[in-house]
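Subject: complex prediction, re-run

Hi both,

The earlier run crashed halfway through, so I resubmitted it with identical inputs.
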Amino acid sequence: MKRRDSNISKNHGEITRFFSPFDLMIILMIGMVTFVAMRFVFTGDLSRKVVVLVDGEVYAELPLDEDATLTIMKGDRYLSTLLVDGERGMARLTRSECPLKICEKTGWVGPGGRIVCVPNRIVVKVGGKEAQLDAITW
Amino acid sequence: MRKKDSQDVLRKRVVIQSLIFLGIVLFFVFIALHFTFSSGLTQYVERNEFMFGTIVRLVVASEKRDPRIIMDAMVREMRRIERKFNPYVEDSIIYRINHAGGQWVEVDEETIFVLKKALYYSKKTGGAFDPVLGRLIVLWGFNDINASKHVPSDEELQAALKQSGWVKLEISGRRVHVNGGAWIDLGGIVKGYAVDQAVRMAKDMDDTTTGFVDAGGDIGIIGPKFGRYPWKIGIRDPRGGQDDIVGVIYLSNGAVATSGDYERYFEENGVRYHHILDPKTGYPARKAISVTVIGEKLVDADALSTTIFVLGWGPAIEGFEADGYQVMLIDTEGVIHETQGFKYFKKSR
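This time it finished cleanly. Structure:
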């Protein structure tokens, strides 16, 4: 028992001989940064951008922090217009060629949200934040 | 000599220190990758498809197979069902029955199953659920998202009502017919059936598959999140925006369907006319603005959410609860009614 205690204190002594408290702090920080970075890299795109999908295919990707106006077309046919408000970090669809204008009524959507226009098969996803819910029943 | 010894010790110390340092960093990387891929954070693949006049979102993960292959099969199956039961395309089975001039039509077992399921709810609810409202739905323009919509005249409504009603649908063995010029429209049930079939297919392809299918807000669960946690599902606020909710439920399996007066509607003279028609009057049902039903299969939850939307909150709900369904209804005053068991799903377990 006495012998084991002396081994522990010996090991402890070796660690502190090789690493100063500052070194240990750096190692801990690198570990934490690595851990957090890995989770962000592999758990989905959390970058601040607006992704426009038409017919399930990526139509355009725009940064969320710059004002932009994007005309969405399918061949020669006009579908809708996407507005990005860079200052507020929000996006919306306007002047849509669809009968009920449900996509327009959705209004401005921020990070983690999305806009859907069923008749024109448009999905707008606003990145930058993980959605609070997995789905919404409606 | 002493100085050289001390330099050697210092060099040795730096080398060992660097190696330990590198080892520790690699250890952290390994731990991070382990947590990311093996336990807490399985990679879910998401896909959006437009079917059944709405957006269908598939979220799938699998340990044994590429989730994209599973999703391909699921989408194919749902598209097959959509085409087969779409009453408004000429090569569908329902179109053939509707346009057979009242003659008996021989159909397959799947069609018999879906039609019998629909008739079961019609009989059980005294016609509050009605799969033979095609004429009325077309009259209002709710059969096509791009169709122009208007409030029909009383004469038009009465004529369409005469050509509607589940009693006009008869099944005999593998043969079906509708009489009186009526049209079958399985819109209140077929989307739920398609999701159930897609969920079953995903599990058949790989029993480790988890995720869910969200067909325009009607959701069938394939398996719990990361194999162990319930999915967090918001219930939309019927008078709020697309992302506003009135509550949250947690589902690890089963299904949830919601019917609301905000899904498909138009306004005329300041009045909202939505797509859930009362089979008795031919007008949009006015006893609720939103009904959510939790059940084992989406085909049943889908049919019941429409039925209860027409019936309103009343004694019939107890019967549905006894059959294993949980219900939340928001009435026209905005008051929320819930079955006892519904509250259970609002708590994370």
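The radius of gyration of chain A is 25 Å.

- K.
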